[in-house]
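Can't paste images in this forum, so I'm doing it all in text. The chain is below; anyone willing to post the predicted structure tokens underneath?
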Amino acid sequence: MSAYTTGETRQKYWQEQFPWEQVWSVFGSAVAHHSVNPEDPASPVVSRKPVYMDWSHWQSSVARRSTLSVHVKPPPELLVFDLDLREQPSLPCAGTHPPKDICRRCWDTVVQPAAAVLEAVVPVFAGDDAAASTPGSLQLPQLRRREPLFVFSGGNGLHVWYAFDGPVHWLDRQRLMAVIEATAKGALPALLTPPTPGLVPVFDDGPTTGKNHLVKLPWSLHNRTGRVAMPLPSAAAYPDDVTWDDAWMVWNHWI
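Text version of the structure:
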């Protein structure tokens, strides 16, 4: 997929390709700012030639003083997990290519086991029957969609989105993150035995548990690479292999 690296190409992307209506239908319920009209959210953004958009601000490619704040918070029924390959303690190709780049081998080695950890843990604690079968007091609302949405960050990582029928409270987010980290380390083998010996996926817990953490929206542009944060058919899909049509099919199915 193409990278949008100039102000002109980025502006054209936001004007012609970014799915404003669909993104707002899923992620825009928390928008609360006088300069953003939910009926026409693109207008104040496109003129700024934005680099990327997230839940805290739209960053302009001109200067920080041109930043357009939207002061929004993630809808509480959505939960996102962030996996950054640069923050992993060990990569199979470490030192063989620039640290800002990712290769297929690193992606396959880290991303697929990390996604397996999430898929083994999150559904176990969701729904009315979870309390009787899971340890502790952690109980999440029913999953609205059984399958998560995998989104390439546009840079070096993967975002995994889960949608629930009700809000996921901050304390439960913290408890869930602790269970996921323990499972990744093999401390809870009843949930999952780590699929790759010696590999312990490390998640950035800020997007999951932090109340004011920046979270990039799907279909946004990555600020460094200019690549699209596009949906993937699965965690096994290498971003360079996914076409625009593939991404749209995944997105339309998930929303």
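Residues 104-121 form the longest helix (18 residues). The CA atoms of residues 138 and 173 lie 9 Å apart.
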